[in-house]
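Fold Annotation — chain and its backbone

Fields — amino acid sequence, structure tokens

___
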Amino acid sequence: MSDTRRRVKVYTLNEDRQWDDRGTGHVSSTFVERLKGISLLVRAESDGSLLLESKISPNTAYQKQQDTLIVWSEADNYDLALSFQEKAGCDEIWEKICQVQGKDPALDITQDPIDESEEERFEEIPETSHLVELPPCELSRLEEIADLVTSVLSSPIRREKLALALMSEGYIKKLLGLFRVCEDLDNREGLHHLYEIVRGVLFLNKAALFEVMFSDDCIMDVVGCLEYDPALVQPKRHREFLTKTAKFKEVIPITDSELRQKIHQTYRVQYIQDIILPTPSVFEENFLSTLTSFIFFNKVEIVSMLQEDEKFLTEVFAQLTDEATDDSKRRELVNFVKEFCAFSQTLQPQNRDAFFKTLANLGILPALEIVMGMDDLQVRAAATDIFSYLVEFSPSMVREFVMQEPQQTDDDVLLINVVIKQMICDSDPELGGAVQLMGLLRTLIDPENMLASTNKTEKTEFLSFFYKYCMHVLTAPLLANTAHDKNSKDLQEGSTKINPVCPDNFQTAQLLALILELLTFCVEHHTYHIKTYIMNKDLLRRVLVLMNSKHTFLALCALRFMRRIIGLKDEYYNRYIIKGNLFEPVINALLDNGTRYNLLNSAIIELFEFIKVEDIKSLIAHIVDNFYKALESIEYVQTFKGLKGRYEQEKDRQSQRLNRYRRDARSLDEDEELWFNDDDEDDDGEAVEKSRMEDDFADSYGKYMEAKKVSDIAGAANGANGANNNGKAAAIPPASPVVTPNNSPTSSVKTVALPATPVVKTALVGLVDYPDDEDEEEEDEEEEEQSPRKRPRLSS
């Protein structure tokens, strides 16, 4: 399996008409029992797995291109290609395919798919007459040749026969010889015919013809023929551009002559396709598919050859980062790397990964830090394009490099800060570069593309890094353009608006709009970090200064920023807005807008409508309490009346809760009063009984002792009430006058309290032995105190 002749890449054509690399392996042709025929097998060189198993069908049209490609179609719209490392291996497999189909290996296509009518029309033609008879290649026959070439384009089988005839007789080079003669004679009619002929030959879509036409000794004459379009009054000067204007620059000398020739050829063929040939019509769009494939495989080959030349790329990056390299040389190096990255887009994902990893290992990112800080606009633009390729390929790779940068005392040297400064300093009036860079920054700080990383802490670490070292650079223009007089806070509410240093310059306004767009993205995706930053910098107040801008789009950006914050329904943000009275500039903008029905008016009303629909109570109360007088006259929408209604509903709800609380508290007092009254009746009964005992046994000490024992027993029987209601009894007014014989409060205290005191104390002494009693009393008291507060919550 080490035979490099049979080493191939397997390609399939996707829906976008781009070739997808299915892998690299070794091809063989063998009989497969399951498929009942000779088949092409490709096994992966990495693990031996089967990449391709395709039966060589007798009716399938196989095509050989550029000596190392075999292309064919299977089923509907499923194109396959084998790209061989060596021509010898391609020839071997091609011979096997032709042997199975009974075709001549000298042909570049085994057969062409044709419709049934053509099959019927040509089935009687003997195989020997497979060539179209071409007129002699002479000046007098150019019109006849042009008519023939034009006429065969509608028939696939006739296109094939014509292509074979052109190849077999070396006809192309003879035609190009006539072109030089016609140009020397200034024979415009002949030159116009040659334009039709060469254009028609290109539309034959045959790789074998392209190999001849795009060879070094023929391609400039082909370009010359295509200059003489009959529709043009004067011919184009494409050759002059390719030979004089377009100059091939070797930033590092390319020693491989084959590589240099391939680069020249690809540039010129790309020029023919993009510039010279007209845009194909719907009926002609497939005529140049082989030309597209020709360019595609050339680019793949160029990138592969350059990538394999380690010395070349090492030298490129060494000079790019060398301080001694002069600016013009560095400009050429940057443009080369840009072209190199552009070519890499033709690679398949697997190969593109390897390509960008190679660039990263060679130091592409440190080099970008240097060139993006240069004054040369062309260099900075090229560096931006390179940076965009890297970010689109792997944002994580860029983030990892940024976080590993040594933390200098000056944050300006950080790559992301260099990017931000280039965005801020974009001199383009339309800020084309700034828009591109803003999109790249958004990709870098987007948490969505951090989730797939194997490093789970990437999101936290990078966002912390960004807000610590980069956010102040991003917001600097915003803060600088919204600074205002500190005394403006002393203005009375509603008197006059703050007159900030608001940007009237259109370019500055555009820049601030870009920054606000990025900050709005942060509000949506960076919950914690951006919240902390907004609070610490009082950022929303500064942003809302832009509501006064004469540029409506900028005022709308500021409003959108606030709308995103309110849309989070975060009470931290809501309290911040209320405390700072940050609705004032929004409402001022609404009132200043007057009766104009425009986007600003609708956007502000939508903000308040959202607050109403979502019933954000704290904001509704703040708006109605502070601004309703100014807004109640707006009646063309029901938004503000709706806010007032919500506010009134909430007030009613709160008052109902308060009433319920009071009612519950009153019912609680009545229950306690009844409970205490029951205790009073018990105490009154005891007092009467005790006074009778004192009257009956006052004369005898022994009788008194017996009475004492009886009272002790009675006190013990009522111990639970006495212990639990000791504190309550202290709060009860003196006993009812009916207890005392003379209805005197003083005598009542004397007659009732004195004898009762030793009885109560004696009763308590026996019960206090349990230390938990005092705690229970305290808990009971706490429950009684807390219960009025708890009940309204439950009822609510």
Q: What stands out?
A: The mean pLDDT is 77. The first strand starts at residue 7 and ends at 13. Residues 712 and 762 are 7 Å apart (CA to CA).
